[in-house]
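Re-run with default settings, no changes from the original entry. Doing this only to confirm the output is reproducible before filing.
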Amino acid sequence: MNLPNKITVSRLAAVPIFAAALLLYGSTGEAAYYWAALAVFFLAVISDGLDGYLARSRNQQTRLGTLLDPLADKILLDTGLVILALGVGSLYRIPAWFVLVVVVRDLILLGLAIRCYPRWVRGEVRIRPNAWGKTSAVLVMAIVIWVLIHPSGPPPVPTRIALFLAAILTSAAGCSYLRDVRNPAPSR
């Protein structure tokens, strides 16, 4: 397993630590748990950019990485969104409608990925990340960080704008991936 894949696996391993710290903060109010959750999430976000950069710059892109990287992102983001929507201490509650947009899109994409997996294994298709998906993922990551760095509640107007923009981009990304599944680029 190469370094980029190890970084991706570490991001997956960070998810339960992030979730536990966030939930413990919510139940105890201990600041140490809050700071731990913020630090783990921030490092996981940094690792997302780092593993991709290393894989491309070192020509270490692997089939395992193309499966694990988006899965790690979705598990990290969906976990954070669901916990923040359920309510954690005094932290801002992310609206349920927004969580539904992101999680439903991710579940649809997961179903499509499972459906396309046999063709992907045979090398018949290659579905790659695109600008819509990357932009929406970065914006959702930024929203979670935005909520976490404002423990007493983020400013409402920029938060609402960011949520609506992220919902639109998430939906556009989902539609573009659906289009790509219907008309996939041939593998080279």
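The chain has six helices and no strands. Residues 3-182 form a domain with the Four Helix Bundle (Hemerythrin (Met), subunit A) fold (CATH 1.20.120.1760).
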